[in-house]
Design a protein that fits this description.
Helices cover 77% and strands 0% of the residues. It is mostly helical. The chain has one domain. Helix 2 runs antiparallel to helix 3. The longest helix has 24 residues. It is flat, with a radius of gyration of 16 Å. The mean pLDDT is 95.
């Protein structure tokens, strides 16, 4: 049994053009996360963990913006 129907798949992979409100929300997500990333970059020693932390902050930004775009 498929977890996603065809409309769900199409929606996930479609381009979702932001209106002005969503564009501001996207910018807010980016601004908040870049501030956190800059602060943590200074605080956390260079390491594998730091690299993973930055990757997960990028993931958080992507998922935050996907949530705004898709809904």
């Amino acid at each position: 049994m498929s977890q996603f129907n065809q409309d769900d798949v199409r929606h996930r992979f479609a381009h979702h053009s932001p209106d002005s409100i969503k564009a501001r929300s996207h910018a807010t997500v980016r601004a908040l996360l870049v501030d956190v990333a800059l602060d943590l970059n200074d605080l956390v020693p260079d390491s594998r963990e730091k690299a993973l932390m930055m990757t997960h902050l990028e993931d958080a930004m992507m998922w935050g913006n996907a949530g705004i775009a898709r809904n």
